[in-house]
Write a structure and sequence with these properties.
The complex is a heterodimer.
Chain A (H helix, E strand, L loop, with lengths): L5 H15 L4 E2 L2 H4 L10 E2 L4 E3 L4 H14 L3 E4 L16 E4 L6 E5 L4 E4 L5 H9 L3 E2 L12 H7 L6 H4 L6 E7 L5 E5 L10 H5 L8 E8 L1 E2 L3 E9 L2 H13 L6 E6 H11 L9 E9 L4 H14 L4 E4 L3 H12 L1 H8 L2 E4 L2 E2 L5 H14 L3 E6 L5 E2 L1 E5 L6 H18 L18 H4 L2 H14 L19 E2 L8 H4 L7
Parallel strand pairs in A: 3-5, 4-5
Antiparallel strand pairs in A: 1-3, 2-22, 6-7, 7-11, 8-12, 9-10, 9-11, 13-15, 13-16, 14-15, 14-19, 17-21, 18-20, 19-21
Helix pairs in contact in A: 1-3, 8-10, 8-13, 9-12, 13-14
Chain B lengths: L2 H11 L4 E2 L16 E3 L4 H13 L4 E4 L16 E4 L6 E5 L4 E5 L4 H9 L3 E2 L12 H7 L6 H4 L2 H4 E7 L5 E5 L11 H5 L8 E8 L1 E2 L3 E9 L2 H12 L7 E6 H7 L7 E9 L1 H16 L4 E6 L3 H5 L2 H5 L5 E6 L5 H14 L4 E6 L4 E6 L11 H14 L3 E6 L2 H4 L11 H12 L15
The complex binds flavin-adenine dinucleotide (FAD).
The site of flavin-adenine dinucleotide has 39 residues of chain A, from strand 4, helix 5, strand 11 and helix 17.
Chain lengths: 491, 440
């Protein structure tokens, strides 16, 4: 959509200011630039306005205004998304939730918390940590990403292998619907009357409205945690070890794989204690009761040895454990140091297909004349091939996109999915037909109609289209702020 | 029902698989007999049945094992029962992936025994597993005691294939355990009671069978003390897989001691040493809070836990289920029983206490100090639940009672979204019309 004519823009600005206050509306192009993309910097689109509401009523009034004027709008959390999900439509309104970041209530006895959407994921765990609780979904971006963004993308993280992804932890939502009505979906109890609207809102990538309050479950911290590092000379052995662990009847809290390129990048940058010459390493974490922990760890060690691990060691203390996790969690930051840019891919495959698929991924990327680092949630088959490239070199970005598409096709071919946690957004809208038939997509469209009939709420996302509104093209790569910080972590 | 339609159905699935007249006995709901019951063998046949029914504008009632068939209001018009009991294939089970894809008519017990042979299980234990089908469990959002640790269908279902009212075969979700591509359609079909589409296939997450499992029971003089034990358990380091609270009547029905105030029944699984240690810890914990005689129950007791309240009253005249904040459970059980007693009704109560899900059954023979209006008790119960921020569903009652007390809570503003979804998915209102919330 074309940018609004100047006079109309000025009057809209006044109206927005009267809703949220003058200091909570941005229109200066320089300021808008910061909201032009999310963590996927390849895609960009400029909004006309960014507003910072502080209440559901604000959001509702902004949304009603947008409806009256026929202006598209999109919710935005921290902007760490990796699929262009919070990109505005050209000329639209970005509704930033960053000033709605309070923990409203914690009910320890019932193990629930009520939070605002702009709350940073990790801050929730901090808030309840003193009392021995935590919020389980732990995306690697948890220092920056918001609970609202997590809801929209149904985000995962290393520990979602055992504890489930965001949707398994959300009980209720206050939502400003795409027409501005404020509605509660679900609540604080485990069941509510009618269809599971919470279940479909989670993962709807901001196309079903704006979440303004979120009721989540908080969990008791486990009694004990044990972290095992297994080192392999061949990547196939590491893949096989994942299946071997599962075959032994174990469901660890996390099973993460890190390949050689990534290990070397991490070691160069942070010195976390991974052997630089290893083809791959598995980071396996067990948690739960102290009783039985040794016996379970022994099964893990044995499964890794039987799969050919050259070295298996257990973190001796919390410091060593933190260091191992730092290596895993700062991998993205480390790529930033060895390559001017990289593209994070996200796909899922059946676990048993890991050896085959990893070989093919490496072949595909090599065939496109590029390098790839793999660091991913191996336990649930959620791949993250990270394709390194230099956007200043002519044609390289196009090759990245081609390799990425080929990897997505591969995931689809082996019965997997084109996204495990980053969402479809703009990036993968055109890949949806890889795994969904026209009938599948048509039913999804009908569900969308039931929530968002005008289409003004986050248009252009998820559904395939031949052209997209966003500008795609070489841009100077900008690392996300949290990558630059090296993602120091907690745990 | 027009003969042409009947002939069409017979031609489609074979005459032996179309029931009419007196054969329809098992499919009568609350005195209402359907026009026919049809049992397709394949997805294509399901599509065919729906096409014929839609064309004739006859309602369709999808039917798994029939264990939840009486939940909700029966269709205002008779129609066709679409039975899935011939669709029982285990389509795919790759142990290494911890997933399985099954046709909707497989019974839960049947699936479990196939999986058990390969060291795995679906961590879901709905009541009546011998009859309940996977499709029905999805549509009714059924679960059991182990939901404390393992959740409900929404935590385990990763893909569905449904046939829509208009005959489209649609797949939602997928076959991998983590997947955020597109909208989460599987969630929409869970608990939709057959009003949005016919579930014909489901893909579920599995777990390895634990090395050991044990069920422990302790008796309490007072329900309140048992409730305190639940709280203490929840803030301890123990990791139970089930936390069940039974009032005296339900405890007696379970065979967990007659004449006492309440029983707390807790399950543990894992490695042997974990189970043993936790059982010891639990014994210590309950004893310090007035629990008596902590003891192991036989494995058969598992299946009797969820239906314990119903079983305690014989043939109940009404069953209401509640979703409450866990801290409201004991109070609701006590007050609810008192409210019913004041009107001359005996009741029995059982709860998945840690998640706040409670079931209450009303006995058929009221002691009658005054003529006892059943509807008044149920309405009072619902109000109690709402006052504490909870919800209530009238799981079972005679039609005359359902006419006075709504089966479902009013979903409020969200109900309008639900109605829009129903209109989008089933524009001609063919699937279970009128059965569900908000007139859906
Ligand atoms: C270094 C790095 C590591 C990452 N690691 C992981 C990981 O391990 N696992 C994982 O799942 N993801 C990961 N991500 C992706 C990203 O962090 C998640 O998708 C996150 O949930 C996005 O949160 P956000 O607040 O940044 O949302 P944004 O990027 O601002 O928005 C994401 C989507 O949410 C919508 N949205 C935001 N707020 C609301 C609201 N209140 N109501 C409705 N819709 C809303 C937006 O419209 C958009 O569609 C990573 C990203 C980076 C940069």
């Amino acid at each position: 959509m074309a940018a609004l004519a100047e006079f109309r823009k000025a009057s809209l600005r006044r109206e927005l200011e009267s809703i949220v206050g003058a200091s909570a509306v941005l229109t200066d192009p320089d300021e808008l630039l910061a909201y032009e993309s999310d963590g996927l910097t390849m895609l960009r689109a400029l909004a006309d306005f960014v507003v910072f509401p502080t209440s559901a009523e604000h959001v509702s009034a902004v949304v009603r205004l947008a409806n009256r004027e026929g202006v598209p709008f999109v919710a935005r959390g921290a902007g760490t998304g990796l699929s262009g999900g919070c990109l505005p439509a050209e000329g639209g309104i970005v509704v930033s939730l960053m000033r709605m970041n309070r923990v409203l209530e914690v009910d320890y006895e019932n193990q629930i918390a009520v939070v605002e959407p702009g709350l940073v994921n990790l801050h929730l765990s901090w808030a309840v940590g003193r009392r021995g609780y935590y919020y389980a979904p732990d995306p690697s971006s948890q220092q920056a990403c918001t609970v609202g963004g997590n809801i929209a993308n149904n985000s995962g993280g290393p520990h979602t292998l055992k504890y489930g992804v965001t949707t398994n932890h959300v009980l209720g939502l206050e939502v400003v619907m795409p027409d501005g009505e404020i509605v509660w979906l679900g609540g604080r109890t485990r069941a509510s009357a009618g269809y599971d609207l919470v279940g479909v809102f989670v993962g709807s990538e901001g196309t079903f409205g704006v979440a303004t309050k979120i009721v989540v479950r908080i969990l008791k911290k486990p009694q004990a945690v044990k972290t095992v590092l297994a080192v392999f000379d061949e990547i196939d052995q590491a893949s096989a070890a994942v299946s071997a662990i599962i075959a032994r009847g174990l469901v660890p809290a996390a099973v993460e794989m890190i390949d050689q390129l990534t290990i070397q990048a991490v070691e160069d940058a942070f010195d976390c204690g991974y052997p630089r010459d290893a083809a791959a390493a598995l980071l396996v974490e067990l948690d739960g009761l102290t009783v039985g922990m040794e016996a379970q760890a022994e099964r893990i060690v044995q499964a890794c040895r039987d799969s050919g691990a050259r070295e298996v060691r257990t973190a001796r203390d919390e410091a060593e454990r933190q260091l191992l996790w730092k290596g895993r969690k700062s991998a993205f930051g480390a790529y930033g140091r060895i390559s001017p840019a990289y593209m994070v891919m996200d796909g899922v495959i059946p676990r048993t297909k890991l050896p085959y698929v990893l070989r093919r991924v490496n072949d595909i990327v090599a065939a496109h004349g590029l390098r790839v680092g793999n660091v991913f949630h191996a336990g649930d088959g959620n791949l993250h091939p990270n394709i390194l490239y230099d956007p200043r070199r002519a044609g390289e970005e196009a090759r990245v996109l081609a390799a990425g598409a080929a990897i997505m096709r591969l995931c689809a071919e082996v019965g997997g999915s084109i996204s495990g946690e980053h969402g479809i957004g703009l990036e993968k809208a055109d890949f949806m037909p890889f795994i969904f038939s026209p009938d599948d997509l048509a039913l999804m469209q009908r569900l969308k109609n039931a929530f968002n009939s005008s289409g003004l709420c986050n248009p252009g996302k998820i559904f395939p289209t031949s052209k997209s509104c966003a500008e795609v093209g070489p841009a100077a790569y900008r690392p996300h702020a949290i990558e630059e910080k090296g993602l120091a972590q907690r745990f | 029902m027009p003969d042409a339609l009947l002939d069409g159905l017979r031609g489609l699935v074979g005459p032996a698989n179309v029931l009419t007249g007196i054969e329809l006995g098992p499919y009568v709901i609350e005195g209402r007999t359907p026009d026919a019951a049809v049992f397709p063998r394949s997805v294509a046949e399901v599509v065919g049945v729906l096409a014929l029914a839609t064309e004739a504008e006859l309602p369709v009632v999808p039917w798994g094992g029939g264990t939840a068939a009486a939940v909700g209001l029966p269709a205002a018009r008779a129609g066709i029962v679409l039975g899935l009991s011939r669709m029982t294939r285990l389509v795919e089970h790759e142990p290494g992936d911890l997933t399985a894809t099954v046709e909707a008519g497989v019974t839960v017990a049947g699936l479990q025994s196939a999986l058990r042979a390969r060291g795995q299980w679906l961590s879901l234990d709905p009541p009546d597993a011998e009859r309940a089908t996977v499709g029905g469990v999805v549509a009714a959002d059924a679960s059991g005691p182990r939901r404390h640790l393992y959740g409900t269908p929404r935590d385990l279902l990763i893909g569905v294939t449904v046939v829509t009212a208009e005959g489209a075969v649609v797949r939602g979700g997928g076959k991998v355990v983590k997947n955020v591509a597109g909208y989460d359609l599987p969630k929409l079909f869970i608990g939709s009671y057959g009003t949005l589409g016919v579930v014909v296939e489901a893909t579920v997450k599995l777990r390895p069978l634990p090395d050991a499992e044990r069920l422990v029971c302790a008796s309490f003089d007072r329900l309140k003390d048992a409730g305190d034990a639940v709280r203490a358990l929840m803030s301890s380091d123990l990791v139970p897989n089930a936390v069940e609270l039974l009032d005296g009547a339900a405890a007696a029905a379970l065979g967990a001691g007659a004449g006492l105030g309440a029983a707390l029944v807790v399950g543990f699984d894992g490695l042997d040493e974990q189970v043993v240690w936790q059982c010891d810890e639990l014994a210590r914990l309950v004893t310090s809070l007035g629990g008596r005689d902590p003891r192991a129950l036989p494995p058969e007791a598992w299946a009797r836990l969820a239906p314990a309240a119903r079983a305690a009253v014989g043939q109940p005249v009404a069953v209401m289920s509640f979703a409450l904040l866990p801290t409201q459970v004991t109070e609701t059980m006590e007050q609810g029983a008192n409210a019913a007693r004041a009107r001359g009704f005996h009741t029995a109560w059982a709860a998945h206490a840690s998640v706040g899900v409670v079931s209450a059954a009303i006995a058929p023979e009221p002691a009658r100090p005054e003529p006892a209006p059943l509807a008044a008790v149920l309405a009072e119960w619902r109000e109690m639940a709402h006052a504490g921020g909870g919800r209530a569903t009238l799981e079972w009652a005679p039609l005359a009672v359902k006419a006075q007390v709504p089966v479902w809570d009013d979903p409020g503003a969200a109900g309008r979204i639900m109605q829009r979804i129903k209109r989008e998915f089933d524009p001609r209102n063919v699937l279970n019309p009128g059965r569900f919330v908000a007139g859906i």
